[in-house]
Amino acid sequence: MLFAALIAPALLVMPLWYRYARRHGKRRGLYLASTMFVVACLALVPVIWAPGSWVLAPVALAGVAYAGMQAFPMALLPDVIEADARARGEERGGTLSGVWTALETAGLAFGPALFLAMLALGGFVSSTGDAAPQPDSAITAIAAGFSLVPAALVAVSIVVLHRFRPTTESAAEHRGTDTREQA
């Protein structure tokens, strides 16, 4: 049920993110999607004290945000490659794409490793059969791993994104002008 609450909204809103980018720009879209994701994750914090079906609403918001967080970075990569080529006078698209892939892969490995460390520190009791009773510290670690930690990591990315201005699109966005021709 949680998976459907995350993925279904992501699939439904992808065309809306495209329209948003056409009107406001890709960078601003990524900023909005990331901010929405942080809000959704922080809204999940109370699950520690009050589990229930209410979590479907913030998970759905996270799904909406997730769609933008998947689309916009890939849409911005060509802008970064172009800006780098203009600044350096040489084409390094392959190198930048390789660095992108390496960092993405490292992030995909880091996330589960961090979550496993949190579970271990929380005293999570593993089981191969029936559900094992979990100490309160393990429940707290699970909830923090799905709320506070992702919110903090994405908040850091928002700070980095705020400083990111590789193209004329970004300059136009900074001035608040329409960038439809450039999306």
Q: What is CATH's topology name?
A: Growth Hormone, Chain: A
The CATH homologous superfamily? MFS general substrate transporter like domains
The main sheet comes to: none
Uncertain residue ranges: 170-176, 179-183
What is the 3D form?
A: globular
What count of helical segments does DSSP give? 7
Helix content bin: over 70%
SSE string, helix = H, strand = E? HHHHHHH
CATH class: Mainly Alpha
Global Rg: 19 Å
Mean pLDDT, nearest integer?
A: 89
Q: How many separate domains make up the residues? A: 1
CATH architecture: Up-down Bundle
- Which class do the helix and strand fractions yield? mainly alpha
Strand content: under 5%
Kindly, what is the distance between the CA atoms of the first and last residues, rounded to a whole number of angstroms? 35 Å
Report the count of strand segments.
Answer: 0
List the helices and strands and how they pair.
Blueprint: H1 2-24, H2 26-43, H3 56-88, H4 93-121, H5 136-146, H6 148-162, H7 168-175
Helix pairs in contact: 1-2, 1-3, 2-3, 2-6, 4-5
Protein name: MFS transporter
Pfam family, one: MFS_2
Transmembrane segments: 6-21, 30-49, 55-77, 98-125, 137-161
Summarize the structure.
The chain has 183 residues and is an all-alpha fold. It has helices at 2-24, 26-43, 56-88, 93-121, 136-146, 148-162, 168-175. InterPro entries: MFS_trans_sf (IPR036259).
